[in-house]
Known about the structure:
Blueprint: H1 9-20, H2 38-50, E1 58-62, H3 65-73, E2 75-78, E3 84-86, E4 104-105, H4 112-135, E5 139-143, H5 148-158
Parallel strand pairs: 1-5
Antiparallel strand pairs: 2-3, 2-4
Helix pairs in contact: 1-2, 3-4
Amino acid sequence: MSAGLLVPDAVVIGLVQERIAQPDAVVGFVLDGFPRTVAQAESLERMLESTSKEIDDVVLLEVPDELIVERITGRRVGETSGRIFHLKYDPPPSPDRGEAGERLLQRADDREDVVRKRLAEYAALTAPLVAWYANKGLLRRVDGVGALDDVTASLFRAIGVN
Length: 162
């Protein structure tokens, strides 16, 4: 992940299978960032068929690449507290220091070169999933640009939650 690569399918599929088998997932669950490939989606379908469950909706939050780069590369984490700041959207007391003077760090996977590599990998591997779910009538597109409350309201409308 820190190199900007996706975790291998076998690892991710195994983790998801374990997680959705837990008692709290019996009535339903939300997956964030999975599946990322058509192969993973096909594995998920097989998993769900074995439990008589099915996917209700697939949400695509649409955000321009440049804004994704800005959002991710601006994150900073307090070295000792773990508090997350954003240089633009939730600024720390100073650009390199958090509360109580702790050093702020940028995670290795939040560097611009890594983020751009992840976006390129998304375009190559994950984008085909959009058409795959659209063809099944499950895809719900939501504009991911705007105030959090507005995006959340749009997401809820897209999946029929009031």
